[in-house]
Amino acid sequence: MTTTHTYDVTVEWTGNLGPGTEDYRSFSRDHEILAAGKVPIAASSDPAFRGDPARWSPEDLLVASVAQCHMLWYLHLCAVGGVTVVEYEDRAHGVMTMDESGGGGQITEVVLRPEVTVADPSMTEKARALHGEVHALCFIARSVNFPITHLPSIRVRGA
Question: Coiled-coil ranges per the record (predicted)?
């Protein structure tokens, strides 16, 4: 039997400055991402497309989703594999390449740079190797059509 999970969100445009979408410059790209029981996410388009740089863009959120999914699966694999992670931070980087017409584009690469701190030196090699197992499990990584590169850095607590 196939198991499914569903995700319901509302995207609400908050950028009507008065004249609506009368022309390309007459409206803000601001919007909120809403879901029952969750804090709203203030979002906009990328600043390159007249968006508010202080708000999350769809591109930011896609890169964050890749990094989050990798981290959550990685922590799971470490927990069941005997690797004690005490700190984890990822400075993920995504690249969007515009098509030649300038009207569209796509995310063409995400690079994850997880900085992991483990509890004991004996855990470093396994901690590094487990990053390679995540891609086959991560729901987001399995759902996208661009390459995801992992460049992990493993440290030992107190070292």
Answer: none
